[in-house]
Amino acid sequence: MTSSDKAARRHLLFRETPIERLQRASLGTARALAPARLGAVPLVAGFWAAGFLKDGNDLPDPAKAPMDFDGVCGIARDLSAPTLLKAHRAGLHPAAHAGPIKWWSPPRRCVLQFENFHMSRRLRARLRQDRHRVTFDRDFDAVVKACAEPRAGKWPVTWITPKIMRAYAALHDAGHAHSFEVRDRDGALVGGGYGVAIGRVFVIESQFARESHASKIGFSMLNWHLAHWGFALNDNKGPSQNVLDMGFHVITRDDYLTRLACHARGTGKNGRWEVETDLAAVAAWEPKAEAKSVLIAAE
Fold first, then answer.
1. How is residue 46 annotated by DSSP?
2. What is the dihedral of CA 152, 223, 244, 297, to 10 degrees?
3. CA–CA separation, 236 vs 43, rounded Å?
């Protein structure tokens, strides 16, 4: 695919019709005005006003983010690749269902140390069936678009707006954002996810599944590679039952920022990623035993 073809396809994938934009704005506003979130409105208004009194492109201090309202702490006026990378390195991420895109520093983070990664017997069996093909960085744009699709049983509005899509696509072009794709035997995209690599930390942005266990298959492949490439942490941002069942655990913001400062140094693994193993090897992976053997060998 030529660069012009890629740009044209990206434009079509990420476009939003006027009706879709109006629907997102309406649902996003209703969500923001829910009683549990209403208190954040004057806070965000204060961030907006403060941006006119100083350099509006300065990143907020994540350590000073409020403990409520999911840690919203500023207006994200600049989503260029360098700023987005700097924000993730500081422990911030952008999101907004409606209104201006905002910076967030959640009071709790849900993270994985790879020796604690857990795959259920059912998941290992599905991996051994070898009915899927997992790739990295083969169709980042399609994965982001799929992650933005409405989820069954969830509020039908997404924080992955066209502006967010374009920002992370640019970060992918720069070699810092990565996707994993899960395809069935017919080549259909049935699962995947994307995130950002910062030094030895990987930050998951979103995942999707169009068939049962599809994202878990790709996620297991991703974690196998992160562990074997020397990453120290996988950050899911917020907790969900799926990732908690897979060995993730919740830590405080202060703990996360301390770990991030330690592990986000250096350039990390930039550029296009390639899959280096097969699903059978992932199914046989015993992270805790492997970590123990590495520790013994180092003594």
1. H
2. 170
3. 25
**Secondary structure class of 287 (helix, strand, coil):** helix
CATH number of the domain to which 31 belongs? 3.30.70.3550
Question: pLDDT tens digit string along 24-82?
Answer: 888 877 877 777 766 666 666 676 566 655 655 689 999 999 998 889 999 999 999 99
Q: Count how many domains the chain has.
A: 2
Domain membership of residue 53 as a residue range: 3-106
Q: With the C-alpha atoms ordered 160, 80, 74, 77, is the resulting torsion angle positive or negative? A: negative
Q: How many residues does the chain have?
A: 299
Query: Can you read off the two tokens belonging to residue 81?
Result: 């690749």
Residue 81: how many other CB atoms lie within 10 Å: 18
Amino acid at 217: I
Give the model confidence (pLDDT) of 108-143 as tens digits. 999 999 999 999 999 999 999 999 999 999 999 999
